[in-house]
């Protein structure tokens, strides 16, 4: 953030509303300043995002036939990534709860990081949903008022509301707090504290509603379990904080600024609980699936052991299981507190483990075998990989820009990121 | 150009150049999208939900669709919009003792409903089941040997036109709904292609148009209904509609007419003298996956 020396608007003269676009423009200018490494990073991300954009344009022009999805497996890599990213977005709020619920002041300077992660993750979620639509130009049918919004019956309409609502909430909270700090003014509690509380409950709701999307389907026994929403939340509260811990390490390395140890310890302690709860719930599900046997076990059998010679997902899920168990062991050991390398390894394993388990390991086996018990396997096509990689790259670009903007504000301000009189 | 308080340095100039390059590359990357205006007309883009169309709107829409079919498939067709007959509620039954798995119903469905020829599909799947088992896991839909086999029986499955249809519940844009005569239909011009209904259906009864449908012009069935067998646009969902363009005019579904064994029975559940009511009164019928509470209007029975 050494380059954050551009003159700011003079605090006293600035008009609180008219200056906001100027603030955004200034932030964007700051966010696009950096060293060679930064430009290289953004260049690579841009290149991947462009490949994804091109693949998506080809998909829209030629239709969903460019994917490997079928009538049997009608949701694939896009919805798998969508489901996982909802979890990351919900997990981002894990920084907000301690900061506000327990008045933990040390969290205040880093809570913005969690919210920025949530914004980037939700943007990715929305893009993954758009990528999965057969007729994206008809998206306006989903807009309440001008389309026909099947609310409250369809869980998908609930998801549209909670995801967009969560995005707006986080944009408002981050935008307002950073702007006030930019103006060197004290934030007005009325303008953001109610929204912070709303966002805490909202974070839970986005992942619950996303789980209801699947567990409400009686015809898909693999998903039709009441444990799905709690399982989603538990793994989200592993994956989200794990990603934030990785971000801490990167920020510390890139900016040279020391991030306080408190938030790091707190996140590790959160993961220590949720990782165990998550494993316990996985064991419970596996037990009920396999101990009784019968037709309901077919999907689980396909996922873990293979079914009638079909076993495309077996290596994936066992990789995920191994990653989850090893990362749980590492998180529970004292090593994660002592060695940052161990912590990063544990976080990466947990993140990838959750990605496989909540993505391909959850969505695809729900369709195999099909409702008439036919087995049609699925592997994503190149187009699907390109589009997914493009969305990830775009998400990381958004995250990078948001983080750089907030750090530019924080490093040029004399005030703390959050008011302390909560 | 003074970029707000930032001195016009080499860095800002480079940034502007980078942004311009990036935008140009983005424009190039999404250039395949420029073909959309050719495929989707403004009228089609702005078309309202079926239930909001006036008779005049419908006339225009049908004319447009007929012209498009002429242009794209080289066939002259008439698109009609038969309404449910008041007081009629349709039911379908299959005599599993008679069905011998010959697949004539699937072929007839493919032709009647203008299915894309490339995928050889229909709204019906016939499961070859082992005698002595009702377990669909023992079934097979891809058999290619002579039928019937001695140790097998055959179970056709298509849309069950449920009274409590999960596909309708989950649709986020009300593109699919249940009509008064019990037929679940899709507005192919309103569906956004999210495939949630396909995930929700316990009977594998829905099909997605992954490809642009191709049908030789001389094979296009010109007798088309807006909510039934007209050629479906790519990227939308479709399903069995009990051939409503036929049945609402007093004719029988194409699959029933094609069945050489007489295994299929169709009729008005509200008419005490209909074939379907004779079956319900005299046979011990069952429905598929009754435990899911979908309440199908599609029944199965054995003669003996």
Characterise the protein shown here:
Chain A: The chain crosses the membrane at residues 36-58, 78-103, 110-131, 160-179, 191-214, 234-254, 266-287, 313-332, 339-356, 389-410. Chain A: Pfam families: NrfD. Chain A: Belongs to the NrfD family. Chain A: InterPro entries: DsrP-like, NrfD-like. The complex is a heterodimer of chains A (422) and B (304). Chain A has 422 residues and is mostly helical. Chain A has a single domain (26-411), classed as Formate dehydrogenase/DMSO reductase fold, CATH 1.20.1630. Chain A has helices at residues 20-31, 36-62, 77-92, 96-101, 105-108, 111-132, 155-182, 193-215, 228-255, 261-292, 298-304, 314-332, 335-338, 340-358, 360-363, 382-412. In chain A, helix 1 (20-31) crosses helix 16 (382-412) and helix 6 packs antiparallel against helix 7 (155-182). Chain B has helices at 10-29, 36-39, 42-46, 55-73, 104-112, 166-170, 196-200, 244-247, 254-258, 275-282, and strands at 78-80, 90-95, 125-130, 152-157, 176-178, 184-186, 206-208, 223-225, 237-239, 264-268, 298-301. Chain B is α/β, with parallel strands linked by helices and 304 residues long. Chain B has a three-stranded mixed beta sheet, covered by helices on one side. A two-stranded parallel sheet of chain B has the order 1-8. A two-stranded antiparallel sheet of chain B has the order 3-4. The longest helix of chain B has 20 residues, at 10-29. In chain B, a hairpin with a 5-residue loop joins strand 5 and strand 6. At the A-B interface, helix 1, helix 2 and helix 7 of A face helix 1, helix 6, helix 7 and strand 7 of B.
Q: What topology does this entry show?
A:
The complex is a heterodimer of chains A (422) and B (304).
Chain A: H1 20-31, H2 36-62, H3 77-92, H4 96-101, H5 105-108, H6 111-132, H7 155-182, H8 193-215, H9 228-255, H10 261-292, H11 298-304, H12 314-332, H13 335-338, H14 340-358, H15 360-363, H16 382-412
Chain B: H1 10-29, H2 36-39, H3 42-46, H4 55-73, E1 78-80, E2 90-95, H5 104-112, E3 125-130, E4 152-157, H6 166-170, E5 176-178, E6 184-186, H7 196-200, E7 206-208, E8 223-225, E9 237-239, H8 244-247, H9 254-258, E10 264-268, H10 275-282, E11 298-301
Parallel strand pairs in B: 1-8, 2-11
Antiparallel strand pairs in B: 2-10, 3-4, 5-6, 7-9
Subcellular location (chain A): Cell membrane
Family (chain A): Belongs to the NrfD family.
Keywords (chain A): Cell membrane, Membrane, Transmembrane, Transmembrane helix
